[in-house]
Amino acid sequence: MGKVTVDLDKPVKRISTGILGLDEMLYGGLPEGSQNIIIGDAGSCKTLLAFNIAYYCAKNGIPSTVLTIDQTSNDMLRNAVSAFVHFADVKELVDKGTFNTVEIEIDEELSSRESITYFISEIVKGVRMNDSKLLVFDSLSVLRALSADDRSFTRMVNYMVESFRNVGITSIITMEIQNGQGDRHKVPGLYEDSMFDGIIKLSNITKAGVTTHSASIVKMRFSKYKTASAQLSVTPDGIVIKSATRLAGDEMQ
Questions:
Q1: What are the pLDDT digits (tens) for 158-193?
Q2: Which of the chain's ends, N or C, has fewer CB atoms near its CB within 10 Å?
Q3: Distance CA 146, CA 115 (A)
Q4: Do the strands 238-241 and 230-235 form a parallel or antiparallel pair, or are they unpaired?
């Protein structure tokens, strides 16, 4: 057996999210080639955050793809631009080819190996249309409903993540979760701690009838990250995340 050489000093290549506060929490951006999931309550801005990152990358010359299942590409773009009115040039990016949108219709339950393999191959095919380096998949919640059982869902997510890793793409996948029991959540069949390199958690906080949003990094392999929550806001210019004034410490995995 040959000796394995490990280069611990090799710098981590990163993809900037274009969101200053988030990049600060991630020490510069998402590790290139990492597989990430954004989890959070309904209405916690998961889709908008993922779209914002894809838009920024495309605008800066990094080919990106946004995959939709439960809505058309036009509806998705219209919804995003209605929130981010200064993103109206997204159509120019689509025409230019740096921003790609893919719709996939699922006509059957995702239970057999064949159906799962076909679904993943369609995603990879869409990514290769413009040689994307970043993929946004919104949302895993839809696939959970279309899976026959927990085991099928687990197998599909594992295969999907490994397929993205094999083609060298950085992915951002969204998933709605319920934070009803303390700070823990559980989606049957989803083991995000082991399935994904990075976990970004969004939350809704309601006080005196006013709802605010927060973001925190739960996990990020290959990178240091700041663990303290930070306030998240939606503006016409995109998502704004304010750097946390009190840091709970830095983690490295």
A1: 999 999 999 999 999 999 987 644 444 578 889 889
A2: N
A3: 11
A4: antiparallel
Phi first, then psi, for residue 138 (nearest 5°) are -130, 105
Q: Within a domain: residue 253? A: no
Secondary structure of the chain as H, E, C letters: CCCCCCCCCCCCCEECCCCHHHHHHCCCCEECCCEEEEEECCCCCHHHHHHHHHHHHHHCCCCEEEEECCCCHHHHHHHHHHHCHHHCCHHHHHHHCCEEEEECCCCCCECCHHHHHHHHHHHHHHHHCCCCCEEEEECHHHHHHHECCHHHHHHHHHHHHHHHHHCCCEEEEEEECCCCECCECCCCCCCHHHHCCEEEEEEEEEECCEEEEEEEEEEECCCEEECCCEEEEEECCEEEECCCCCCCCEEEC
Instruction: Give the predicted TM-score (pTM) of the model.
Output: 0.89
Q: What is the pLDDT of residue 208?
A: 87
Report how far residue 108's alpha carbon sits from residue 190's, in angstroms, rounded to the nearest whole number: 21
Predicted local confidence at residue 218, as pLDDT: 94
In this predicted model, which residue has the larger pLDDT, 191 or 37? 37
Q: What is the mean pLDDT of residues 138-146?
A: 86
In a domain, 94, yes or no: yes
- Please report the pLDDT score of residue 108 as a whole number: 67
Per the CB < 8 A criterion, the answer to whether 37 and 170 are in contact is no
The total of structural domains in the chain comes to 1
Q: What is the CATH number of the domain that holds 80?
A: 3.40.50.300
Specify if 164 maps to a domain.
Answer: yes
User: Per the domain annotation, does 119 fall within a domain?
Assistant: yes
Domain coverage including residue 54: 19-247
